[in-house]
Amino acid sequence: DSSDDIEDVSLFDADDDVSRRSKKSKIRHPVASFFHLFFRVSAIVVYLLCELLTSSFIACMVTIILLLSCDFWAVKNVTGRLMVGLRWWNQVDDDGRSHWVFEARKVSPQGSKTSSEAESRIFWLGLITCPMIWVIFAFSALFSFKVKWLAVVVMGVVLQGANLYGYIRCKVGSRKNLTSMATNYLGKQFLRQVRFPGCWKPS
Fold first, then answer.
1. Is residue 9 within 8 Å of 86, Cβ to Cβ?
2. Collapsing DSSP states into helix, strand and coil, what is residue 58?
3. Phi-psi group of 111: left, alpha or beta (phi > 0 → left; psi -120 to 50 → alpha; rest → beta)
4. Global confidence as pTM
5. How far is residue 46's CA from residue 51's CA, in Å, rounded to a whole number?
6. 46-83 b/e (C-beta count within 10 Å ≥ 16 → b)
7. Quick one: CA torsion of 75, 27, 129, 46, rounded to 10 degrees?
8. pLDDT in tens, 23-82
9. Closest residue by Cα to residue 88 from 168, 27, 192, 177
């Protein structure tokens, strides 16, 4: 049984008209926005260019893992809280049971938020795109039989995938809620096709 403390936060702040008008393109936390992308993009660049930069596999591996570790800590503890008002962590109670906690920033009575639409877009774009790139690297290393790189790539998938999963849980709730959202979406699409059968035509 997990203890979830969740409050709805818009993925791109699209539902907050006041925030969109006043902070649509302003980046309030430029340092956090920079480091949100710096560590994860640097790890990808080092992975792609390491064989050109040095012949030492150990040096490349240590550098990539350090960058991935810094990225995991920064995104989990700093950039998520500042840029989109989300935070997640795991805690163990006195009985030894593990609890996952998911938090969202409280919205003020005026409906304003301290994060901007630009920051939200940067945050989610980096959070979603980079794990997908590491998944591509994993398949590439597997099919090209680069076994020594497979452990590094798997580390990238695990660390960045864990942050992605944690923040999705913060955004939409538990796994049960994810299933409910998918079911509701498919149900709405089905009803739309039933009521307006001419709106969709097979290609």
1. yes
2. helix
3. left
4. 0.68
5. 9
6. bbeebeeeeeeeeebbebbbebbebbbebbbebbbbbb
7. -70
8. 455 888 899 999 999 999 999 999 999 888 888 889 999 999 999 999 999 999 999 988
9. 168
